[in-house]
Amino acid sequence: MGRAGVLQVLALLLVSRAGADVSGDEAREAAAVRGLLTRLLGPRAAAGFSVSVERALAPAPDADTYCLSGGGGTPVQVTGSSGVAAAAGLHRYLRDFCGCHVAWSGAQLRLPEPLPEVPKKLIEITPNRYRYYLNICTPSYSFVWWGWERWEREIDWMALNGINLVLAPVGQEAIWRRVYLTLGLNQTEIDEYFTGPAFLAWGRMGNLHTWGGPLPSSWDLKQSYLQYQILERMRSFGMKPVLPAFAGHIPKAFTRVFPQANVTKLDNWIDFNCTYSCSYLLAPEDPLFPVVGSLFLRELAKEFGTDHIYSADIFNEMDPPSSNPAYLAATTAAVYEAMVAVDVDAVWLFQGWLFQNHPDFWKPPQMKAVLEAVPRGRFLILDLFAESQPVYSRTNSFYGQPFIWCMLHNFGGNHGLFGVLDAVNRGPSTARLFPNSTIVGTGIVPEGINQNEAAKMGASRKGLFALLVGLMYRVKPLPFAQQQTLVWVTGEIRSHLLQTLLVNDSGLISIPSFSFGI
What we know:
The chain is an alpha/beta fold. The protein has 21 helices and 17 strands. It has helices at 3-11, 26-41, 43-46, 83-97, 138-143, 148-160, 172-183, 187-193, 200-204, 219-237, 254-257, 288-304, 325-340, 353-357, 364-371, 396-399, 421-433, 453-456, 465-471, 484-490, 495-505; strands spanning 49-53, 65-70, 76-80, 101-103, 106-108, 122-125, 130-133, 165-167, 240-244, 249-250, 263-265, 280-282, 309-311, 347-351, 379-383, 403-407, 439-444. A hairpin with a 2-residue loop joins strand 4 (101-103) and strand 5.
């Protein structure tokens, strides 16, 4: 089918809107937290808790709240304004009242008997509308070979840490394959385009194609089924999964089907030659741009539902072909307009890494062109490396767009005893005090997990990752209390460990992550 024919046929599809909205209710979310409780502690210990979800507990719609009471011979009462709020309250009780610890590497869950009493009703209200998790690279560095059992544990960890906004990229290649076939590409061309499983993060951002491919023949079906399970569980807690959207990157074979398409070949990414890099970018003014973008998003929403927040990265670690602000604004607007053509409530989650990664290109006129190309409030920016090199402070708070203060901490999942504890502890509150601040949340965005346990569980009260998720329900920084984390990890204080970690607190875990090789 030629270009005109595809445009005519697919334009009819743009009339429809995205798939049905997916929202939980109080009973469903409370049941999800009770399920978590049983998986974590077992049915006997779980019987010592009573969990409920009451939206009215929150003083405002975006102010998630939890309340703890009881214990000491009566059931511990855990109430949250959402499932993730209740789970965060449960985690607070286990951590601070029982000395327990739940981490990526395992858990220490020796409960006192009877369960300790909460002496005075404890209520916490988060100042963060969003508590975000995941870097777009994390699935490739850490998650790529996971099955449901490991994903279930990770989603439980997210809930316990109050995460309510999380990247959910699994299964998108099956949708892209469907779209490309509809557009006229053949199976061989599509197989040649996709990277192998471990490199999909960079294929999705347009950095790579073909490298490590093709995907296994069973990949699409298995990943789609896994995504159904992931999304159902996330939504059952009240989390909002962030699904992908079209950023403009297309296979080379697209030009065979549409030889008149306005396409730009980008430069190579780092040291990859054009056999595996040099992606093709569809021009924003080409009439096929909204067709491809809307077709993909509609198919995605039909398959997986939608929570109206989408991720797309156009120029990740790749300079655009033009620094003209008008070009940058037009490209950005084209991506957003393809979203709202399908979902009028679409919000674009955008990694701000490009602004930090190449400041020589991204000067104020270029950054402003991108950030003002989307209606204010419909762009949600991740200030990805804010613990070390925040961007909000040199863009007047992203020129009025809402942003999430994020801790990146590690590159490539590299291991090392490093971290900037004080910067993490004070960073979110400093961002809130910035003139005309548009901060709406905090996030943890490591490129890899299962690393740096000493920094994560070190001599600070919360460690590093644990510190930031602890701050998600606080307005002000935490005072440090060196012994607390050791109680969580071991169940008792061992003096030689405490002495060692005190040395680390004044040295190693004050070293910024960019001091180590990437």
